[in-house]
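Lab notes, practical 5.
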Amino acid sequence: MSTSLTSTERVRAYRQRQRALQGETKYKQEQAKIKRDQRQTTRKLKLEQLNIQEQKALDKMMDMFRDIALETFSSKREGLTIQEIKQEVKQKLIGINNFSNCEELINGIAAVSKDRAKRSTIEQNINKIDLLYRRMFDKPFDCTSQSMEFLNDTTRVLTFIQEHKRWKSAETKAGMINAVTSILRRLPEHQISYEIYSKVNTETRKQLDEIREENLLSPEQQELLLPWGEILGKLASIKEDKNNDGWMFERAIYAMFTLLPPRRSGSILDCSLSQDMEATGGNLLIVDKKMKPTHIILNRYKTHKKYGRYQSVLPPRLSTILKAYIADEDMELGDIVFPKRNSKAYSGSAFSTIVSNIFLKYSGKRLGTTLLRISFASDVFSVQRSVAALKKIALALGHSVSQMSLYNKFGINDLKKVTKDLY
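Output from the prediction step:
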């Protein structure tokens, strides 16, 4: 009595006959081609169901996956099999989608960042998202994949940023949107949300540039800003105070941002003492054999790739103030000039807060480095200068004359032309 074959058994028998007819190698090649064609057909059907925004997000995700794979294959070519490399790529892709704390999130983003974003920049952007989360939900932000989900409610987040009473200036709101955009750009599972933030970010930046090109003080800036002459004049009021052990530190900070064209805080926070005038790494305060500061050398700052190494002689007054501070702190070569208690450099956000608090204490205004640069640049442009002089001053600030001109603001009352003889 014969028994009929099941469908599975018939398929298996057919495959065995094909193997016998074609040979094992040719059969496997033919089957691989059939599967590839099936996957491509399925993929094409799914792509046709996506809208334009989803297609753009998918393209960016694929670019990111391709970059991760290429980098892994390039760096791991020696000693690993193809399968082992593929497994490592898979682990990286899993890693950038699953975080249990902020350290893992920052490390994951830094590892897959195509443009090699600075870790400090990533940290600053995460800190802004942390602030956004706390203000929206009144609870701590832990950087887990689950906590990042709130950013996918793009309408709610963008409305909150625009309407929250604590964020008054257009620059602050733009900075929050830019931080969110920058982080989500590097997280594959958030690419659809990223496209929305990216569009708003571009439009916001364009509007902000148009406002800046008017060179007018915003209402917030009018409230916060002081003429450069008044800011500089307050330095003389910082004197020995028996009730303030940190007065020399505060005077040194105040002097560093007023007796030189005010740099961004990131250029100063990690400056260390050195006697090597030829050093090409790090930011340095050069001292002589008697530990008297003579020069500042900046090898790493926001625009260093464009403008390169910056070196300047210190004005005598600044040199004297810094020498007294260095001696009081009993510093040695290699020490961070403005350190935390553990002798390490402050983070960017922490150092910026310290600077603005010191200026609030002695000037009466919470002046961060952006406001200092606005006041300084406005004073520079209040005097007729040659193009060569403007280029030199702009370079001291770390940017071009055209960029410096955007810091120039009309309407600072009683402006004193104290920069007239600087250059």
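Observations recorded by the TA: The chain has a mean pLDDT of 84. The first strand starts at residue 272 and ends at 274.
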